[in-house]
Design a protein that fits this description.
310 residues, alpha/beta, 12 strands
Length: 310
């Protein structure tokens, strides 16, 4: 009996020591937006490189990556996984503004600081420890101003939006309207949610060509997956005259700009955003003061400067 009691006490001591060791660990969690599209693959690659370096030099003990599958419900479920796995600081790239609000609410309940990156939830300013991103209203304005300068005579244009409700979709749309709504020579004939996907953008483009023909002068897209797909389709249809522009500055679309096919892109430094988010997460772990917001600037990329970025 005495031996059994001693064994139980020893086991309890081991488990207690293990629990304290786990509690002392510094773990960063990242709820990714997805692991599929080119822009977020760039972000994810940069995140892994930065986190591996921090783990190698002992700044953090470990990290967790979670695939959000561009779905706010999945991302909310992953928040519970992050809690169970002992994440100390969480970085999230939200799929939707409203749909991901519960993540920050849950994090506040359990005391996990959240660094929001790339796009905002509706409660980021209230509950987020920090936001790192770029000014999406400005991105929309850059695209609209480019189209207006490229085609000063104006005409009809259409807009391919990202997922409706995502903060980037909301703000880029706002930026486009800020510029073109005040120009009487321009008429927006349609804007549709294409969920960031090139095939859906092409489908709407086919309808717009049938409806407006030569009167259609420009198609503005919320990302490069859509703009590059639309422009490639327009080239096959003999409509190279229609101006296309998108956002992100991915490798493929950037090459299309260099080759004179895609008219322009707005470069978004996704890798820079996630590196800054990780830097801030480390500062939080170390008890350092941080700013409430860090903005990484957008850059308009045309044939004139593409070789500086490609």
């Amino acid at each position: 009996m005495r031996k059994l009691l001693m064994l139980v006490l020893a086991l309890c001591l081991i488990l207690t020591s293990f629990a304290f060791a786990e509690a002392d660990q510094k773990i960063i969690g990242v709820i990714q937006k997805n692991t599929v599209d080119a822009f977020h693959l760039t972000i994810n690659t940069a995140a892994i490189e930065a986190l591996d370096a921090l783990k190698a030099d002992g700044t953090i003990d470990d990290y967790r990556l979670y695939d959000g599958k561009t779905d706010p419900v999945t991302q909310c479920d992953l928040m519970e996984t992050a809690i169970l796995e002992g994440v100390d600081v969480l970085i999230i790239l939200p799929a939707e503004a409203a749909g991901c609000d519960p993540i920050l609410e849950r994090a506040a309940e359990v005391g996990i600081p959240v660094v929001v990156a790339n796009s905002k939830t509706n409660n980021t300013d209230e509950l987020g420890a920090c936001y790192i991103g770029s000014d999406d209203v400005y991105a929309g304005e850059l695209m609209a101003n480019f189209v207006a300068e490229k085609l000063p005579e104006g005409g009809k244009y259409a807009h391919c939006m990202g997922i409706i409700g995502n903060s980037a979709q909301i703000q880029r749309t706002e930026g486009i309207h800020n510029v073109l709504d005040g120009m009487e020579q321009w008429e927006m004939v349609d804007e549709q949610g294409c969920e960031w996907q090139g095939d859906k953008a092409i489908s709407f483009t086919q309808s717009w060509l049938q409806m407006y023909g030569d009167e259609l002068k420009a198609i503005i897209c919320d990302n490069d997956d859509m703009s590059s797909a639309v422009k490639a389709y327009l080239i096959t249809e003999g409509r190279e005259d229609i101006v296309c522009i998108g956002v992100d500055g991915n490798a493929g679309p950037m090459q299309m700009v260099a080759d004179g096919e895609l008219d322009a892109t707005v470069f978004q430094d996704g890798a820079g955003q996630i590196r800054k988010a990780i830097e801030v997460a480390v500062d939080i772990l170390e008890g350092k003061e941080i700013e409430k917001e860090y903005m990484i600037p957008f850059v308009l990329i045309t044939l004139d400067n593409v070789n500086d970025y490609i």
